[in-house]
């Protein structure tokens, strides 16, 4: 049973690798022949290549799904099933960011889980895969940097807000003292209320 499970894993690996190659091929076709094609004949030929790639994707996806079912029937553990996830339609799409890295709307996109499989072999054997991983790495690095900047900004805004509240406490404390010195009880009472309010707000931060 263990040997059979390993055979299904091996076939699943081959299918995932082929799917990656077909997706990368489609992206390159879109980038070089469709988006930047110089004439109608080139575009028509390119769409034919895209159709062939799509057919191959469906073929390998079907085989992978069968491998996934068989691994489940053979009692594959959670660690294996976590690695070889169920293949959904959303996983069978290419990242158009590689076709136009500067296009709007791709900043928060992430690649489907199948792109985490055997990255080293992919990059060593195919320039298309290297381009895919390069673009995705750059986008993930940009996303990480942006969120780090957001976190730092939020911390600064929190500190600025706290300083504002504490400044209000000092202001109304001085107003309270001045009101008491002048015998203005109602103003002193209002100033006390303001001090307490801003003090509580400052404590929340």
Automatic annotation (TrEMBL):
Domain of life: Eukaryota
Record protein name field: CxC2-like cysteine cluster KDZ transposase-associated domain-containing protein
Lineage: Eukaryota, Fungi, Dikarya, Basidiomycota, Agaricomycotina
């Amino acid at each position: 049973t263990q040997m059979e499970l390993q055979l299904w894993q091996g076939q699943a690996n081959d299918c995932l690798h082929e799917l990656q190659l077909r997706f990368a091929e489609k992206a390159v076709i879109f980038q070089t022949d469709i988006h930047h094609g110089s004439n109608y004949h080139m575009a028509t030929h390119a769409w034919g290549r895209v159709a062939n790639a799509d057919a191959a994707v469906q073929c390998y996806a079907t085989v992978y799904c069968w491998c996934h079912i068989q691994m489940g029937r053979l009692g594959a553990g959670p660690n294996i099933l976590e690695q070889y996830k169920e293949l959904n339609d959303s996983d069978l799409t290419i990242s158009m960011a590689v076709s136009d890295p500067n296009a709007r709307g791709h900043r928060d996109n992430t690649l489907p889980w199948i792109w985490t499989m055997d990255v080293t072999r992919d990059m060593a054997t195919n320039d298309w895969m290297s381009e895919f991983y390069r673009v995705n790495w750059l986008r993930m690095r940009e996303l990480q940097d942006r969120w780090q900047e957001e976190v730092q900004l939020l911390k600064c805004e929190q500190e600025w807000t706290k300083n504002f509240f504490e400044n209000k406490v000092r202001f109304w404390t001085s107003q309270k003292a001045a009101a008491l010195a002048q015998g203005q009880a109602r103003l002193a009472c209002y100033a006390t209320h303001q001090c307490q309010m801003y003090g509580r707000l400052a404590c929340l931060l």
